[in-house]
Design brief:
The chain has helices at 2-35, 62-73, 84-93, 100-107, 109-123, 170-174, 197-221, 240-251, 260-285, 288-310; strands at residues 57-59, 126-128, 132-133, 139-140. Strand 3 (132-133) and strand 4 (139-140) form a beta hairpin. It has a two-stranded antiparallel ribbon with strand order 1-2. Helices cover 52% and strands 3% of the residues.
């Protein structure tokens, strides 16, 4: 009889773990869906009608919700409910079998109530058929692809952002390309994060020469006649990582953490990295027109980055960078 009670207890705990894991994933998916907005973020340019794939809104059934929950669940490693050591720990703590009413009141009723409220709200809304996850895990109510919002972004970027220098950039968070910034413009982004002037001063003093070296190298490859004259994207002569280090000190602090503006700067650096590769490939193929196009986008990326950085360079910090 004692053995049967223990076996029944273990089976009940396995079932409860499965239920909580499933409802937990559904809750996260539902919360993400509800937090999504149809309006474009300041860092997500709205996609023109010519670029936006055709979408049809569909009602969100419980099956559809758990489809998204399972996709989200697959992105994270969770402890398996079959882990015997986990079950043994739980059994040791809850060595007495509680009445069903007490067991569910303490752990399940509240979460199920929250899930029910969330589901009822969600089921009354609609989810676009082509909704997808950004590389960072955010569920968006629109498609996610590397040129969304900017058709001039490099198409060679991997959909999961795995082939860039800085994986956590604008595309990683928002699932879209950023807009270019006109040289010297202050219209985008609308504001800049506060970073102590001393921190910016020290960073500029440390990295200004390396930024200039990066600019000189980009100008140099502009006159290349073949792919052999263009170093690979990861060549240290481009000093792209130094650009990232400068952005870290200019656009984030200990108090702010990683800001949207820092992710934006990283996106521009990643575009430089990708466009150098695109430019080299075009030259190797002998496609001069495509090479000129890629180089033009490369210049747009470096100027966007420099404009973003220059907004944080005041007279107390130092001299602003010139544009290409």
């Amino acid at each position: 009889m004692k053995y049967d009670r223990k076996a029944n207890r273990k089976a009940a705990m396995k079932n409860e773990a499965r239920r909580e894991r499933k409802f937990g994933a559904a809750s996260v998916a539902a919360s993400l869906l509800l937090s999504s907005s149809n309006s474009a973020s300041a860092f997500v340019p709205s996609c023109s009608s010519s670029l936006r794939p055709t979408t049809t809104a569909i009602g969100v059934s419980s099956t559809k919700l758990f489809h998204w929950a399972n996709r989200l669940d697959a992105r994270f490693e969770e402890r398996s409910c079959e882990d015997e050591s986990y079950l043994q720990e739980e059994i040791a703590v809850k060595h007495k079998l509680q009445p069903i009413s007490q067991e569910f009141t303490r752990r399940s009723i509240l979460s199920i109530g929250v899930i029910g409220t969330t589901l009822s709200t969600l089921l009354s809304s609609s989810l676009p058929a082509n909704a997808d996850f950004a590389p960072g895990g955010t569920l968006l109510d629109r498609p996610v692809y590397v040129t969304y919002g900017n058709s001039e972004a490099s198409p060679s970027r991997a959909p999961n952002n795995s082939n860039v220098l800085f994986s956590q950039d604008n595309y990683y968070k928002f699932g879209s390309a950023a807009q270019w910034i006109e040289a010297g413009s202050t219209e985008f982004p609308k504001s800049m994060p506060f970073v102590p002037s001393q921190q910016r001063y020290d960073a500029l003093k440390k990295f200004s020469v390396r930024v200039q070296t990066s600019k000189d190298q980009l100008v140099k490859i502009g006159s290349a006649s073949s792919g052999a004259d263009v170093p690979d994207s990861d060549d240290p002569t481009y000093q792209l990582r130094a650009l990232g280090l400068l952005a870290n000190s200019f656009l984030a602090s200990e108090n702010s953490g990683t800001t949207n503006e820092l992710m934006l700067a990283r996106w521009y650096i990643n575009e430089m990295y990708l466009r150098i590769g695109d430019y080299k490939t075009a030259l190797q193929k002998g496609d001069q027109k495509d090479a000129e196009t890629c180089y033009g986008y490369l210049i747009k990326a470096i100027n966007s980055y420099l404009t973003l950085i220059n907004r944080s360079i005041t007279s107390k910090v130092g001299d602003q960078f010139s544009y290409l």
